[in-house]
Amino acid sequence: MRFIGTQLDMSSFRQARLEDCVFSECSLRQADLRQTTLSSTDMRGSDLSEANFNGAILDNADLRDATLLGLDVTQLTSFEGLKVSADQLTDIVRPLGIRVFPRAR
Predict the structure, then answer these.
(1) Which of 10, 28, 39, 90 has its CB 3.0 to 4.6 Å from that of 59, i.e. a possible disulfide?
(2) Residues 30, 11: contact at Cβ < 8 Å?
(3) Number of domains into which the chain is organized
(4) DSSP per residue over the chain, as a string?
(5) CATH code of 48's domain
(6) Is residue 102 part of a domain?
(7) b/e 69-85 (16+ beta carbons within 10 angstroms → b)
(8) What distance in Å separates the CA atoms of residue 62 and residue 71, rounded to the nearest whole number?
(9) Which Pfam families does UniProt cross-reference here (predicted)?
């Protein structure tokens, strides 16, 4: 399945198996992705603001340059090998209690 630049705000994919799918440059604001398997899914550049990922599997998913506002990795079932951009790290690790600082010179 491939979605390129598609408006999918508030869509429900709950419990779907979407391995190896492409959601490139899509808007998935407030989408219901609970218990969804998104292994090896390409979501680069998509807006995932406030999407519900509780219980989702994001193993080897590519979220580089995606908007991740509200993503709580502690609510994921698994995220081994998750790909993110360096500037997304702060938002990803915040729920784990980790603070990221710029390199000291």
Answers:
(1) 39
(2) no
(3) 1
(4) -EEES-B-TT-B-TT-B-TT-EEET-B-TT-B-TT-B-TT-B-TT-B-TT-B-TT-B-TT-B-TT-B-TT--GGG-SB-TT-B--GGGHHHHHGGGT----PPP-
(5) 2.160.20.80
(6) no
(7) eebebeebeebeebebe
(8) 14
(9) Pentapeptide_4 (PF13599)
Rounded CA separation 97/90 (Å)? 10
pLDDT digits (tens, 9 = 90+) for 36-72: 999 999 999 999 999 999 999 999 999 999 999 989 9
For residue 6, the one-letter residue type is T
The verdict on residue 65 lying in a domain is: yes
Instruction: Report d(CA 102, CA 15) in Å as an integer.
Output: 38
For tokens 């609970």, name the residue: 34
pTM: 0.90
Q: Are 23 and 42 in contact, with CB atoms under 8 Å apart?
A: yes
Q: The domain containing residue 57 runs over which residues?
A: 1-97
Q: How far apart are CA 95 and CA 74, in angstroms?
A: 7
Quick one: tokens of 59? 């193993």
